[in-house]
User: What shape does this take?
Amino acid sequence: MSARIDSQGERIEAMAKAVEKTRSAAKRTEQQTDPAGYARFIGAEVETALDGVLDEFAGAVLTIRKDHETTAVRLKELEQAEETALERLRQEIDAAARWRRRVPWVWAGAVSTGIAMTVFLSALF
Assistant: This one.
């Protein structure tokens, strides 16, 4: 009877080992087929694959922002230069208009000086 009990004990131990191996395999299978684990794995892989591309996009965005700021500054400078040029042109046009209003008086002065000189010189000679 002792041999029988020993043999049954060995069978029970073998069954317990088999059950433990099965349980361990089931646990590993469960971990390998865990949707959340796969999602984390896939997310990590996608992030690794996209890191370079996203870094390039970030660099491009910074370059575009810097170019936009530079363009805005240059545009403001051009607007100021244009206003300065237009103001100078207005001043030159006003000066020309004032000169045109004086031209008849200059001619009148020249003609009257010519007449006065003629009369004066004819009186001398």
